[in-house]
Amino acid sequence: MSEKKKKPPAAAALNAARERLHTGWPMPLFLQGAFELLQAALFSAFLVVIPWMAVWFSGGFADRSIESVLKMSGQTWLLIHGVPLYLLQVGTGTDPSDLAGVLNFVPLGLTLIPFFLCWRAGRRIARASYTDQLWQGILGALSVYLLCGLFTGFLVNNDEAETTLLMAATIPLISAGAGVIIGARREAGSWGRLIGFDAAAWISKTSQHSRWAGSYLWAVICGGTLAYMMTFGLSALLLTINLGLHWVDISNVYQQLRPGPIGSAVLTMGQLGVMPNLVLWTLAWITGGGFTIGVGSTISPLETTVGPLPAVPILAALPSGDLTYAWAFMLLPVFAGFMAGWYFLRVGENHFDDWISLRIRSRWVSLGLSTVVLGIVVGVTAGILSLAGSWLSSGSAGIGRYTEIGPNVLLTASFLAAEVAIGTAIGYLVSPLLEHDPVLDG
Description:
Layout: H1 9-23, H2 29-57, H3 66-80, E1 85-88, E2 99-103, H4 108-127, H5 134-156, E3 161-162, H6 165-170, H7 172-188, H8 191-195, H9 199-204, H10 208-245, H11 247-257, H12 260-273, H13 275-287, E4 291-293, E5 298-299, E6 304-305, H14 331-347, H15 351-357, H16 363-393, E7 405-407, H17 409-430
Antiparallel strand pairs: 1-2, 1-3, 4-7, 5-6
Helix pairs in contact: 2-3, 2-4, 2-5, 2-12, 3-5, 4-7, 5-7, 10-13, 10-14, 10-16, 13-16, 13-17, 14-17, 15-16, 16-17
């Protein structure tokens, strides 16, 4: 049989080109990452611009031009990404010597919008790339987000507020980068697949004592995180109940303001945007550390001193009246610590107790010492997490006495660490009485 004639190189290239035109060219990962986060930036910007434009069209900003409203929308977009705005004295220009205050109070509920948009983008980038190529998509994504922040910071400076281009370009990368990386990790299923490093294989090569120490440390961190998250959940529940009890007071403030349908909608959206902040304030309140709304004010179960407040409906739900027994709410973090101690017993990773019991023969001494250490370390872990949460929910409105808003960061962390430590120690000692092994039938 005669061999088939091979197609000439030109014909083969032409057929390959036709097939490529039919199936399309794959988008480079760098461009795909850039496209994904460009969508996230634009969509989050639209969600900010639309409410402000609705208020402007309804006559809410009669003395402002559309350009001024758009700049205010851009400043809001930067603010929800954590970029501080330097407020200037009205009518004095943009001279730094005319600084009136710093607006750096971040509505964390609105920050979740770009975070989850970037989380979705991170999943899509991870789905389109191999482990050793993922950095290309993430680099492209963060590069375009940096440019979006830089471009926004360049356009929105005016004679009322300004920010630096460096902060406008870099600070939004924190929430965007966290969203992209966590989303990519969610899609990859493990950090090993995400970064190409097998932690389990590395741990298996270490000594037994190192693995025991690592297991103990990891269990302690999980216990402290559990205590903090349970305290956060209890704070959210308490805030919800309190809002329900004060719903009439909140409605009265709405009626006195008379903002109109669009104004009411925007005002409600703004209050929903600070709900995570309010939960963290409630957490600070139940620990005893308390929070402030303006210089000189203190709101805690142990002391309440409040000055004049702005006409914000949700502030009508602040604790008031007879607070004689308010200290009882400080038992909630102790309960969260109790559950952390119970969790620690169930995971069975108290290798420090095993180590110390070999050196101290008296069991009640070794058990007491290991339990105290456990409570302290779990409490400190919860306190460190509290430092981050309290700091994120604090800030300054940059106006008058409202330059201090939010929890007392150090006091809240100290109180929470002590309460969780006590609860953890009690929970670890008492929880064996709550465990019941099933009876095995013969």
